[in-house]
Amino acid sequence: MCKEATINPSIKNAPPTRQQKIDLLNARVQTITKKAIQEAKESGEPLALEFVHAQKQMTTLTAGFPVYQLRSALVVYIYAFFSTCLIIRGALMIHPLTTAMCVLTMIVGYDFYSGILHVVFDHPSNISIPILGQPCLEFQWHHAIPFDIVQKDFVDVCGDLNVAVMILTPIYCAMLDLNNGVAMVIGGLKLWMAYFGQFSHKSAHVTYGSTWAKWLQNHGLMISTKEHKAHHKPPHDVDFCLIGVCNPIIDALRTLTNNNRIWVSLFCIWSVFDLVGYVKVVDALAQFLQIS
Ligand SMILES: [Zn+2]
Ligand SMILES: [Zn+2]
């Protein structure tokens, strides 16, 4: 485990740096883990997996400490820049109504995907899956430290997606026809919706958010604090979506099956094939409306 996080007294009044905020969160992980170990000893109950892995060193394949990490802000800005270029280039090739259909499809599609992902990442045993384990550990520690998403700088919240974007980008490039305007807009929006989902989640944890964040929450375009609080109540088994419009669908699917293998399979399939499906839907609709 790392050293206890401290802030240099000579710069006590300076706002904490991004690294110091991350260090303080990791120090909190250590404190909570120590308490959990003590409680497990006294009760004789087995220690939950998030505490077991918080005592191990993280590796490329296996989940462990540090749970919170400083992300590359530069990579976030590069991803955002190229996605914006892709959206603009694609939108210039298609009808404005088709662009609007892409946006609508991605709002619903992203929210549904965020629900599947969250169900999978919250499952305790998935911490043991290679590569996938670390984000599962981070998600499960968010239940123990709900203010982590507010304490971190937003660029680090978006940066939590850096590795996933790196893995998925070549897959999408291979599967999508990047001369197709709809594919360009949908491909670019995938990243922006993911960042918007992070913003929606963060806003749900802010007591006094901005006026426009409140407006989006009040109009059902971001998850409300009240709705997201329902997810934070143990056993964390409702309201998984990060925007919230697909929560009834995900909750209904969970009444059909809670089988973890089925949910992990659904997550893998949806991660790879979602955009291809969305492009086909929007292309078909545009053709039907004769606006392509
Ligand atoms: Zn959760
Ligand atoms: Zn939360």
Automatic annotation (TrEMBL):
Q: Where in the cell is it found?
A: Membrane
Q: Which GO terms describe its cellular component?
A: membrane
Per the UniProt record, one Pfam family is: Lipid_desat
InterPro entries in the record: Lipid_desat (IPR019547), Plasmalogen_desaturase (IPR052601)
GO molecular function terms attached to this record: oxidoreductase activity
Q: Does the keyword Transmembrane helix apply?
A: yes
Lipid desaturase domain span:
111-256
Regions that span the bilayer: 68-88, 100-121
The membrane topology noted for this protein in its Swiss-Prot or TrEMBL record is: Multi-pass membrane protein
- Print the keywords alphabetically: Membrane, Transmembrane, Transmembrane helix
Q: What is its main location?
A: membrane
Would you identify the family this protein belongs to, as annotated?
A: Belongs to the fatty acid desaturase CarF family.
Protein name (database record): TMEM189_B domain-containing protein
